[in-house]
## 1
Amino acid sequence: MSVHLQRKNGFLAEWLGRGLQNLLRRFESARNLLLIEQVDA
């Protein structure tokens, strides 16, 4: 595998990883909001 392709794959892996982390944070935040609403009700 060429160095250029390895860098490109590394960039893609980092980009996908960051995207998944952001989605996970959003999911956790939404879940926490739902729990707070249930406690307040």
## 2
Amino acid sequence: MALNVPPPPPGTPYSTILPFLVFLLLGASGAGAAPSGAAGTQALPDPVPASSDTVRDGEALADPTTSSDTVRDERPILQAAVERRAPVRELLAIYRRMEGIRDVRIHLEDGILELSGTALSAEARAAAGEVAEGLPGIVWVDNRLTVETDLRKRLAPALERMEEKGVAFLRFLPSLLVGLLIVGASIALATWVGNRSFPFERMAPNAFSRNLLRQAVRAGIVLLGVVVALDLLAATALVGAVLGAAGLLGIAVGFAFRDIVENYLAGVLLSLRQPFSPNDHLQLAGHEGRVVRLTGRETILMTLDGNHVRIPNATVYKEVTVNFSRNPRRRFLLSVTVAPWEDLSNALYLARSAVAGVAGVLSEPRVSGRVHELGDSAIELRVFGWVDQTVADFGKVRSEALRAVKETFESEGVATPPPEYGIRILADGEQPASSDRVGGHHGRKEEYPVTPSDRPSGPAMAPAPDVSPDTTIEEEIARELATSEEENLLRPGPDGKPATGPGAPPLHPEG
């Protein structure tokens, strides 16, 4: 029987060609023992595979299955050799990709694996042992790797990595420069667009809104440039991370500075709504005064005493606001008392006539009056009149109306007695007379006579009452606006004048 077995490739280890030698020897002995035409063949002894394998990192492992042997009985032997070398082959492939492992030698015998060589650190040595223990068929690992102490060898991997990163950076540098140019161009364009006034003046009604719109446009242009640059650098995933971090930062800042953010947002809404104008007379959050300005965080009032009051915009936005200047016509109220025995119709007529004759009181709507309350010793009357605050001062007109009513009552003999209470001690069993009951007024008219001769005489020619608007607070506000550099988010009136108040055109001019 002739066997054509090709010779093993040159450089094949002895442990690899051993099956071939066994095969040749068995073939030769079988051929010599069986003559031509013999009735039977001699059984082939089962060769025993090598008990151990020692492989160095970098050595080639020949695959016995590539042999052209055609004898079927030898295939289990070759398959066993291949299966025995599989863990070694897999482990070497893993160690070649692990950093810090050098010159590894693997010896496998009866499930016991011995590692020898060098490791650049104790962590790399331990990692190599853990990888070997995880392979199937390994009973125990004898880790004999030694930690490298030579400084030059320990630094070599780090220097190699630095060199690789340097080369990669040089290749990346042109794209980085182009990206920086794109970002710089977007910033320059955003600055140029933000400094233009034409589109923003038409789109936003006040300075604060224009400023917000400018900032939004600038941010949009810069963000667009950054996205284009990151796309050029193949780093668009960074945009999502940056936006996510910005969102978390915004939430944290919002909770930390909740009051400041609330006041700022309220200032934005107030600047858009413009619920009041400069110099408006307001009653707000328990304070009364005229509006000086609206800033990003607070509303500034000047009280009628000339004091500054700063109210947070969040409070202004949520509180009830009374604006005395939005409608220049304002009604005033006079409360006077007359004696119970007086003719109430005549007293009301005299009071209305006196108020209607005061300078500054409007003829339309007409002056009105009514009986408000019946008291024990007096009856309260109320008289209402209207004032145009653009031509007359509200407080002055009301003061003159009070003076006119008092003088009219005195001249016409209408009694306005002060409150009076009488106490009488009765004896046991004595009944009070009808004239002594509470509320009785018999005989009291003679007790409190009021005649023109009883009034003190005044000067022969009294000066005419002054009911012109008081501009003291307006002058203080004008001085404040001229000297302060704080922002003002309120729109001024026509031609720079206050929207309401003295100096503004009347909203309802008298015909």
## 3
Amino acid sequence: MRKFLRSNTFLIILSVTCAVLLWIYVAYEVNPTYKMTIKNIPLEAVNVPSAFDSGDMIIDGENKTILTKQYTIDIEVEGKRNIVSSIKKSDISCTLDMYTVDKAGKHSLKPVVDIRKSGVKLVDGSVSAISFDVENIKTRNLTLKLKSTGELPEGYTLNNVSYNDTIAITGTEDNINNVGSAYISLNYSDLSPDDSEKELEIIYLDKDGKVLENSSFTSTTKKSEKVKFNLYTKKEVTLVLRPYYKDNKKTNNNGKNVFLSVEDSTKKVNVTGGVEIKVTLEGTKKALEKYTNNHVVYTEPVDVSEIYYDTLLPDKYKAASLERNVRYVSVPEVAIRATILSDEASSALDNSVMMQNSIGEELTDE
């Protein structure tokens, strides 16, 4: 045993043990002053001028996030070791007073750090001032152009194109003044016959014709624009063209019945006063589906209130406009004859017209 106590091994073990005991004593009994760095403390901006809320001014550059709680700072604190080692981020608040930031330009403000932990203080010089640039916001109207690429589906043409050709861009004065033009591009090859609108990305160019990033503008600046249009194709069809009585009134001012019929020596006029006409229509695929052979269409309104005798009306009448997204390639124009009818003849004609309409509907359905 004496030999072991006098050995180097024992002396080493004794030295280490004494060192550990001494460290524990110094660290936890004497408790000297201790410094510690605390990272990523959220910064809260206070007394922010209303110009930032209204969007008239923004913070630009490297520190542009100081108005959001995404911005953080690192601080160094000191105090007794046992207290400093127990501090939490929730014991610390960091604020930046923006009261004096009321105009564009370069600014530098020092955050105020409040430590809500007794016995802990901020190390002098551990928090630096934050420098940032304030920019005025400008809004400007810009003409939006539509460009096209590719080929339309075979047999179709583009019609009724509409979109908002004036857009407002908002951003810093430098960025807005640098914008030269803007356009959207419609690729015809991407269209199908049933398409009627597309949402297109807006491409902004600087004054040298180079593409600008959308990040150059505020969030209120549009990034896309909806374009509406119709794809028209053509269809040949045989329709029945009838005269149309204005206000659906079929009697003149004397109460006499007036019968109108299309005057065409080359075609047979049916009991409704209409004739078959072969026409070419153009419109959307869906809209044209309704217009089959024997479909009834009408002329422009004819006023019979002052027609008192049988006569060929002096003016020719065009076919009235068709339903939405359908039109004549060449609008038919016809002469109309007016015939005064007795009450008996008018009643008999009405019965014949009803029968003719019923037959016509059956033919159309077939």
